[in-house]
Amino acid sequence: MITTENIALHELIGLDTEIVQSSNIQSVGLKGKVVDETKSMFVLSTENGIKKFPKENTIWRFSLGNNEIILNGNMLIKRSHERIGEKA
Asked: The CATH number of the domain where 32 resides is what?
């Protein structure tokens, strides 16, 4: 079961997210739903269409029910199937 403690080890597609901090300051504050993921990018469905954002050097806020979790994108730089089920 996905929880706030193990979210980084689970599938993130389908979760709402927001860019909290980024090396590209124009990306900060952008929100969307994760619709795809590669080793180094998240693909988000935003109000302005589908956009790709790098995981590296980006801090992400994910919504999980009533909880919000902040994750460092540098910790997520893996293909989702490599990250899922990995031991913490």
From this structure: 2.30.30.210
